[in-house]
Amino acid sequence: MTGRRRLNGLRRVPVPLLVLGAIGFILFALPLAGLLARTPWSRLWDLITSPMARDALRLSLLTSVAAAAVALLLGVPLAWLLARSEFPGKALVRGLVTLPMVLPPVVGGAALLFAFGRRGLLGESLYGATGLLLPFSIWGVIAANAFVATPFLVVTVEGALRNLDPRYEAAAASLGATRWRTFRRVTLPLIAPSLAAGTLLSWARALGEFGATITFAGNLPGRTQTLPLAVFVAMESDRDVAIALSLLLVAISLGVLLVLRNRWWGLR
Amino acid sequence: MSEGLGAHLVVSPGNGFRLDIELEIPPGRTAALLGPNGAGKSTAVAALAGILPLEAGHISLGGAVLDDPARDLFVPVERRRLGIVFQDYALFPHLSALDNVAFGLRGHGADRATARREAGRWLERLELGSLADRRPGDLSGGQAQRVALARALAVDPDLLLLDEPLAALDVTTRAQLRRVLAEHLAAHRGPRLLITHDPAEAFLLADTIHVIEEGRITQAGTADDIRRHPVTRYAADLAGINLMAGVATDGSLLLANGHRVAVADRSVHGATLATIHPRAIALYDAEPHGSPRNAWPTVVTALEQVGDRVRVQLGAPVPLTAEITPGAAAGLGLAPSVRVWIAIKASEIDLQPNPGTAPEGDPGPDLRPSA
Hints:
A: mainly alpha; B: CATH 2.40.50.100; 9 helices
């Protein structure tokens, strides 16, 4: 009896938290409700299966997954270097790597253009050597997405590496494992949940990417027009299409979040 | 150069702390590094392991130099052949018990099949065969400790390094595991170093004891040397531990002077070393009520104030050291030659098969400090 009473006492919510929390929830729920209220349900299927929508969906999925893969491939080594090694200018490197998180994406896109454009810093020699041109191509979309998404993985994984008990790596080394073997067989498996979380975060960021993409890769239907760009264009022409595409984005994000969340974090 | 471990460790890991100790351990011998928390034991482990390079001094093992800053020699941790049982074991949580043990074998060049076969044999040897597929999270503390021991031994290390191997275990498991440890220590051909803050563990498992305080060795010798002639306050405190030789048979221990005491641990038979903590001995002015199994009248031979406790030396029939509060001592009117009753719970007597090395040539129960 007294135990239950005490529990109730601890569970009682302070009124200010309840009020502000409720306002916060409404702030998130209301726009979604607005979207659902305006949804042209009878035409929905036709709208999201239109050629424009299908192209944008295919491109969005392809480029966001590719960007997440790039983030994983390049972000993990960066995170390891930032967490585990000492080198001059480390603070600067960390600042630059995480800059895209706070940089307006449009600025990021412009910067990418000056670096990888046909007359850009690296783009000119890249084009001369390989004929590859990033801007206004699917490669440009992936580059823009990876540019804004990788920092999320770096930050997540670096935190995990810093929190990892150093004795596991010491134990591995004392058992004759080289640094590389220790990294593969001990470090990576132990930070797997954070790797997954970081990859998911960067994928989600890439899926929603707009500013850097439109600046660097343009808005070419079927080639560089991802779902967010298609929504933007549709807002000007056909609101129903915009709503349908938005709903599609919401459904994909929510679905992936729920499925992976249960898979990776549900058991912990 | 000796085939065992020869080390002079000088490291300053920070905070103004400086470790400066010398260790010599011949092959087949166990040395204990015994000291309070913060004395520098973990720093010594890190230096020996190669996690923390020396600033001065040297480490040589099995005739090879592992670290010598003066000659700019340093062998990194993965190329020293060490078997380390880490404090809290540091078993890889994502690998099965078998893969944990196989990890070191793989690291030292065995192919996958050989490593797994050999790891399986080690698990069998430590009676863990049925738990090979379990992850560390599904093992009890005692089982995890044995996996850690198997993992360390499996690489056939040149030096076996045990960092507080029993500290994380409950009292009952600790006594069992101490014997498992003693058995496998004896089987290991190389030098063995036991890091501990538990004097009973050091007295029972090691041939020589190095007392470490504030980064320096304050005393080195056999358990008996340290007990008879403690040179620091800390060592004197350790010296209070009662250590007795005898023969154990099924719940009783026959001391060398013919006195018999009841013990709770029935798993040890034959030649045995027993330790009793001085605070586990209760003193009474008359025969205690409730008839504890070990109670007898004796006489106070000496009294000494040690910090906030009073250390009481007791005479025949079993010379022992007890520690009580000054209040209790005053209440009992203790003074030399006063007669008292003592009581010891059978479960407070720690037993360990007597390896026959320490304390050497001792006549038996009269092992209490002469100081």
